[in-house]
Structure of Coproporphyrinogen III oxidase:
Amino acid sequence: MRTPSRIAVVGGGITGLAAALRLRDHAPTGTRITIYEQSGALGGKLRTGSLAGSPVETGAEAFLMRDPTGADSAVVTLARRLGLADALVHPTTGQAGLLIDGELKPVPGGTLVGVPGDLAKVATVARPAADRDLDEGRPLLGPDEDLSVGELVRQRLGDEVVDRLVDPMLGGVYAGRADSLSLAATMPALARAARTEHTLTGAVRAAQAAAPRPTGAPVFATVAGGLSRLVAAAVDAFEAQDTGDGVDTQIRLDAAVRELAPTPEGGWRLVVGPTRDPELVEVDAVVLALPARPAGRLLAGVDVRVAALVGGLDYASVGLVAMALPATPLPGLSGFLVPATEGTLIKAATFFTTKWAHLSRPDGMILVRASIGRYGEEHLLQRADDELVAEVHAELSTIVARALGSAGSPAAGAGLPAPVAAHVQRWGGALPQYPPGHPDRVAAARATLRTDHPTLTLAGAGYDGVGIPICVRSGETAADEIIKALEG
């Protein structure tokens, strides 16, 4: 990027912020970067609130420390760049549970998102169909083949492994179902191994062996004080740098980009703001850090084929019910996942003050959070807040009482005390539902843009996967492509 440019980043979530920071770090004097965010706040699903005087995440909770190569994940590198390295904290306990027939059982080790590499290790929660995973003399998948996770695992290991292990783990991450989620999109390491290995258990072991992880190193982290600190630190970085080197970074809130079209000069024209009072903006390059559907609508004015490839992706809506409770015993778990076959409103729960030591309080008050809503269950989120809190509390009380009773705790049967405070957060259209073939569709869309419109890039969970590290890396990669295009 040898000459100053005007660059628009459309979307102010963590993906867009990471893209803007990367652009900011490589911009020559005079470059103008503008972040357009349609809501009134930056950060997207990184949002920290307060409950009974304690910080509580009302969106994403944590992130992976390592990337698939074993190196620091993109968000760890970002945290260091923003001066938050000393604020990273790790779970006190990493043992989670599964609700099986109403009882909490430890999540078995040695699985890859619930898919076992050793069938004996999962026997406590599921009965694998061991006689199906036979070596038939060829790889499980062809070179370009993709199918749903559920289809492959049911064929090889039976229904119980899917329903009791894989489905709740995928549900915890994607709020989707194993039978409709792409293997290549949600478990890329397993998909790669399945193109050379002849059995599913062999593919799991191969994928695990190819993912180096330092012995004893923590797997997850969060930011003490809340993930919103990442957002605030990014804004501080923009403001601090803007005073020193002549690169202007502007943040526009409540600024929806409604139209996007190429200009005859090779740049881009954006229509920003309300229909009655539109603002026309011309820039040299654009990073679309938006969910797939709104990105598809903007791309309709650029290339209808790309718009169709991108805009058809569906999303799941979820709700998060957080409660502060007086001091009371809890199972010694970080939380638990719930298979859909259990029939509960809750699909996952986190015992925050058990999982994160930095959230413990002198008065013993505990923080718990439940996730509700799988793909196709949007109607459950339309109930009133007090109804959701009451049902979540009742289900948690039953589950905890039974777990403590099984453990011989003197507190068994007491259930949970009434919450001191509660908060309900709904996230409409929050989590992408990647159907089989999703990676190929995204690759085709990006290939067309690189050829025909190299100064327009896509970034975010709708294309590359969920999780804060993936979103950060996606934003940075999109920014790198813009830099290369403007230098060329």
About this structure: The chain has a mean pLDDT of 93. The first helix runs from residue 14 to 26. The longest strand covers residues 421-433. The chain has 15 helices and 22 strands.
